[in-house]
Amino acid sequence: MKNEVIFLNVNPICLKCGILLPETDELKKEIENMNEQFQYFHNESTLISNNKILLLFKINYFKIQEFKSSNDYKFIKSKFSHINTFKLEDAEIQLLETNKDNNEIILESRIKSNLIPKCFYSGDLTGKREYIIYELFKSKCVQFGESIKFIIKGIDFLNNNREKSFFGLPKESVANLVSVGERLEQVTEKNYMEIKNKLYPYLLSEGQGGISIYKVDSSNSYKKIGGNSFGPSTLWSLFTFSCGYQDIDQALSEAEKGNTRLIDLSVGDIYGGNYENMALCSDLIGSTFGKFKDNDLNKIQKKDIAKSLSILYGVTYGHVTSMVSMKENIDRVIISGNTFHSLGLHQIIQTSIDLYSNQNIKTIFSDYSDYFEIIGMFVKFNQTKYSRKKYLK
User: Fold this and answer.
1) Based on the domain organization, do 22 and 56 belong to the same domain?
2) Which domain CATH number covers 109?
3) Beta partners for residue 43, in sequence order
4) Are residues 214 and 346 in the same domain?
5) What's 171's domain CATH number?
6) 214-177-191 Cα angle (round to 5)
7) pLDDT by residue (tens digit) across 93-150?
8) b vs e for 157-187, b when ≥16 Cβ sit within 10 Å of the residue's Cβ?
């Protein structure tokens, strides 16, 4: 690699990538046409800073071959010539192939050739994932640092350098969002906000495998204060194993059209109507999957199950986050990690936080929330010895 660099966040759900390229007029023109030509690259997930362009995208582990057939991958190969030409000795190829199906971490020393170009990663690198990365980018993974530090640096960078990086959603009633039946209205509006010098302190609710919650006092000061094992990886696994989905975006899109009346037990099912003493309406979910066993499974579609699971996830996420927020007396929380970019799911999380905090906590989302970590790696790269040309030869 010359001036081109690959950053990777390796996590259980997908491979998040950042391709760093020198800014040129030709490249800027190519980016302007990305929405028409590309499936993975988009104008809104592109950052330009210090005469460099950072392209941000995700690859579904289930769809590696689809990605390799895309215009996006052809574009990457045109910028990284070694992907087309670089070859290892047979013994080194066998080393990777031997370990591609297990979960053992392959250390850098296991790949002996110093000729292999490097890419930088953070996250959970298993042998199988390293093999996928090598197959895609013909690069050797070098660990870059602790994930949470990059996330916080990425948030700080966006707050200081990118307008309209953060947003909230319109207020919704709990009954509209967390009820049995069908939800007809779809969320489309984002209320963008500027935070600037009012960022710290904040609560970071970060979801990769489970949910980890941090109190962040500055870009260099933070501590973990809570968490929950029911996180994005749990939801994705349930979508996959209970519904057969292999695309998270499809699962969440169909979930918004699902009907949980044959799956979830409502307040009305339990009390025969509204529960006046607690001001609970009859359609509010009283027990997730509480009616599943009592109904004809042939009448239940996978989108119905997906909806019930997404509501369960959103309410759990909001519940644990708001409880920690109130304990720490912090009035804003930034949602990070594998957020799935589903505004419907975001709104369930926000509404759940509003409910449990009595609307005393502001929930903040970002168009870049899936890429805070990659952006933080980019910031560190520009500040350290790694950016020296001799390292990238």
Assistant:
1) yes
2) 3.30.420
3) none
4) yes
5) 3.30.420.40
6) 60
7) 676 777 666 655 555 445 666 778 889 999 988 888 888 898 899 988 888 888 899 9
8) bbbeebeebbbbbeebebeebbbbeebeeeb
Q: CA torsion angle for 358, 214, 370, 344 (degrees, to 10)?
A: -20
For residues 43 and 64, membership in a common domain is answered with: yes
Residues in the chain: 393
Residue 274 lies in a domain: no
Considering the domain architecture, whether residues 347 and 260 belong to the same structural domain is answered as yes
Which residues make beta-bridge pairs with 212?
206, 227
Hey, is 158 helix, strand or coil? helix
- Contacts (Cβ under 8 Å, ≥6 apart) of 22: 3, 4, 51, 52, 53
Q: Is the pLDDT of residue 59 over 50?
A: yes
Residue 288 lies in a domain: no
Do 58 and 106 belong together in one domain?
A: yes
Backbone angles phi, psi at 92, to 5 degrees: -75, -35
Reported pTM: 0.89
Residue 1 pLDDT grade (very low, low, confident, very high; cuts 50, 70, 90): very low
Same domain, 209 and 332: yes
Which 3 state secondary structure label does DSSP give 170?
A: coil
332-337 vs 362-366, strand pairing mode: parallel
Tokens coding 286: 């009283």
Tell me the pLDDT of the chain averaged across its residues: 85
Residue 228 lies inside a defined structural domain of this protein: yes
118: Cβ–Cβ under 8 A, 6 or more apart, which residues?
1, 139, 140, 141, 142
d(CA 58, CA 189): 24
Q: Do 186 and 101 sit in the same domain of this protein?
A: no
In a shared domain, residues 300 and 341: yes
Q: How far apart are CA 343 and CA 190, in angstroms?
A: 9
Tens of pLDDT along 237-273? 999 988 889 888 889 889 888 898 889 888 888 888 8
CA angle 273-277-278, nearest 5°? 85
Lowest average pLDDT, out of 60-69, 127-136, 146-155, goes to 127-136
Question: Containing domain of residue 27, as a range?
Answer: 5-147+373-392
